[in-house]
Specification:
heterodimer; A: 116 residues; four-stranded antiparallel β-sheet; 11 strands; B: six-stranded mixed β-sheet; 12 strands
Chain lengths: 116, 113
């Protein structure tokens, strides 16, 4: 988990509310990622960013939004349009966003979001 | 489409016995393969990766994995399991410079004393 922080660790939301999950890294990595984890489904990619001020949709982007205004920060907003947001959310980063397939991807400790 | 399969949802093994967690992949292009471990309510921890070269890769905590191109497999192994190895294990593959990983569904390993 070293170098990537996620907050809060636990988050409760009422239906209809938007919430923002924080992800910060001090590893000077170019690329950052958001995954969603549900029991028995592995990790699914929500959004990723290879460089500041640029990001792309992953496999399940509907109902989510992101920004990448700073290299070290990649916040994820779960909007009210996300129909089933209760899940464990993991942020990750790679050293090189533009060219290295061999980089190890490092993960933060995760945020567990529960919709009440 | 790229995909990773972990055919066993659960693996149970006695402490001191060898363990194997299976992973197969289907990709277009050269695969770069990774194993991660997750403890309850924690992020994923990197164990090892195969990039090129020797098909047997050694990683953290005594784990190793064998890349088999003909069988498109990358099974995780350990000669002698510990109770503390009990966790959720994920296999992942990357095939391009975009950096994203494709994950298997995970295998829950339980090592009983």
């Amino acid at each position: 988990d070293g170098g990537i922080t996620q907050s809060p660790k636990y988050l409760f939301r009422k239906e209809g509310q938007n919430v923002t999950l924080s992800c910060e890294q001090n590893l000077n990595h170019d690329a950052m990622y958001w995954y969603r984890q549900d029991p028995g489904q592995g990790l699914r990619l929500i959004y990723y960013s290879q460089i500041v001020n640029d990001f792309q949709k992953g496999d399940i982007a509907e109902g989510y939004s992101v920004s990448r205004e700073k290299k070290e920060s990649f916040p994820l907003t779960v909007t009210s349009a996300q129909k089933n947001p209760t899940a464990f959310y993991l942020c990750a980063s790679n050293p090189d966003g533009q060219g290295s397939s061999t980089d190890t991807q490092y993960f933060g400790p995760g945020t567990r979001l529960t919709v009440l | 489409a790229q995909s990773v399969a972990q055919p066993e949802d659960q693996v149970n093994v006695a402490e001191g016995n060898p363990l194997t967690v299976k992973c197969t992949y289907s990709v277009s292009g050269n695969p770069y393969l990774f194993w991660y471990v997750q403890y309850p309510n924690r992020g994923l921890q990197f164990l090892l990766k195969y990039i090129t070269g020797d098909n047997l890769v050694k990683g953290s905590y005594g784990f190793e994995a064998e890349f088999n191109k003909s069988q498109t497999s990358f099974h995780l192994k350990k000669p002698s399991a510990l109770v503390s190895d009990s966790a959720l294990y994920f296999c992942a593959v990357r095939v391009s410079t975009l950096g994203r990983l494709y994950f298997g569904r995970g295998t829950q390993l339980t090592v009983w004393p």
